Hints:
This protein is an all-alpha fold. Helices cover about 70% and strands about 0% of the residues.
Amino acid sequence: MTGTPAPMGExxxxxLAAVNATRKGVMRRALRSLLRARWPILAIVILAAVTxxxxxxxxxxxxxxxxxxxxNRLQEPMKPNRQGVVVNYLGTDGIGRxxxxxxxxxxxxxxxxxxxxxxxxxxxGVSLGLIGGYFGGRIDDVIMRVADIQLAFPxxxxxxxxxxxxxxxxGNLIIVLGIGQWxxxxxxxxxxxxxQREKEYxxxxxxxxxxxxxxxxxxxxxxxxxxxxxxxxxxxxxxILSEAALSFLGLxxxxxxxxxxxxxxxxxxxxxxxxxWLALFPGVAIMLTVLSxxxxxxxxxxxxxxxxxxxx
Length: 312
């Protein structure tokens, strides 16, 4: 006896259709949450502008960021040149380089370092946290003791020490900042795995014969990704600040590469002479970028945490 066919015109439920419906529902809830919060929309606009500058820097920068012009050195913003034309919209620095062009190129370093270091630290930390939380015992103790040892030292001092040994450079900077972030992800992933590893869906996966890596990375990890995503958004802001601080100390990328922290370092000797624009514009760029990531992280925490949604 065959089943009753579905009436004409009515959709037939399939797993793919259910997944698509769930995704659309999540996107609608996210859009409503963004419109209700408002501030995250401004943060997304700012981060989109910074990302656009990082990607399209060579195309939109008005001048070569390393081009020097001693005749036009320390020119104020929006000041016409000898021909009466405004060329340097945000002024020039001590050796005549265009501040606006250096700001645009500096966004590339901040975005690349921020996301790459968080990707390295997140991958390493989440993997170690999954291993420690799932297996427990001596493996867990070793991982957590290493994390405690790293937390016992101020991160900026560790970064300075490693960069002095390895030498300044974009690759070394990313590696040092990435390794410095793994502890946070490892501790959060470990605590989440401990609370999830004995639940019914994990037991069902074991009963179906799923392998241990499949259970860890295919079953448990998707269910703990929400708090890790929130931490990643905050960590991008932290890494950008750390990169600016290290570049300010001369331990970041080479001086020929424009960075916001390097621009602040170059403005130190000019502030007392009233050259305010040399520190103002890179400082505002760092502040807006970091603030935008923090605002976006706050919104993600409120949106992804079911307990906060239940209270609201």
